[in-house]
Design goal:
Elements (H helix, E strand, L loop, with lengths): L1 H21 L6 E15 L11 E12 L4 E10 L2 E7 L4 E2 L2 E2 L4 E23 L4 E22 L9 E20 L4 E10 L7 E2 L7 E2 L1 E14 L1
Antiparallel strand pairs: 1-2, 1-13, 2-3, 3-7, 4-7, 5-6, 7-8, 8-9, 9-10, 10-13, 11-12
Length: 229
């Protein structure tokens, strides 16, 4: 799927760069925007998939500089909501890569957030309806914070009851979509983004060196609005 997104984003960027080279009307147009998003990120079996949520609502705020009709640079900040999942795992199950000796109930909370910077390309589709294709390639500096809280189902205390997994990593992000100008300075856009969150692999626990998480790559479904100046 990441290859499909790369195929979607790269031609738009190449065409934008080619058109920009031929276009002598360079000028800087700033813009700001906000997206409502939904992140889907799974984990490897036994390394977080049975503990944490796989879907997180998130917000994305950004500002950009558009140099002409085809090329822009953009920077922003994205953050998921902090979401909790309650599960009971049986004895012998893998929890964070470690085998459980007895039945345990977990309340596990996760969040991902961080800044990002991107090169954005635009390819006009229809002047009448002011539609454009968008291609994006960039880098996000993400912080993943997951906390596993455990209580034995038979009432026996677990030590440590809290297990914290934290990791920061710079990851590749790709995106593609479509945008439409509603007025001269206000528009909307919809995008599908991919982030290489698999690089957060082997996220070790602070309190327990035997436990770790292994996230997979993220897909982000995005719908937002922006203003130009």
């Amino acid at each position: 799927m990441n290859k499909k997104l790369a195929l979607l984003a790269t031609p738009a960027l190449i065409l934008a760069a080619s058109a920009a080279t031929a276009n002598h009307g360079w000028g800087v147009m700033p813009y700001v925007g906000a997206d409502a998003e939904w992140r889907h990120m799974n984990f490897q079996n036994g390394f977080g998939d049975n503990l944490f949520r796989h879907d997180y609502p998130q917000g994305n705020l950004y500002a950009g500089l558009k140099f002409n009709d085809y090329v822009a640079v953009e920077a922003g900040y994205e953050a998921t909501a902090r979401k909790t999942r309650a599960v009971t795992l049986g004895a012998g199950s893998l929890s964070g890569g470690a085998v459980l000796p007895l039945n345990v109930q977990f309340h596990s909370t996760g969040q991902i957030k961080g800044p990002h910077a991107n090169l954005v390309g635009f390819l006009p589709l229809c002047d009448q309806y002011r539609l454009e294709l968008i291609g994006m390639v960039g880098v996000a500096r993400l912080k993943a914070n997951f906390v596993r809280t455990a209580v034995a189902s038979n009432g026996t205390a677990i030590s440590p009851s809290y297990t914290t997994f934290i990791k920061r990593k710079s990851v590749l992000r790709l995106g593609g979509g479509i945008q439409q100008m509603i007025t001269e300075c206000w528009g909307i856009r919809a995008m599908l983004k991919w982030e290489n969150t698999k690089k957060l692999d082997r996220m070790g626990a602070i309190e327990n060196s035997l436990a770790s998480l292994r996230p997979k790559n993220s897909f982000i479904y995005s719908l937002g609005t922006f203003l130009t100046f």
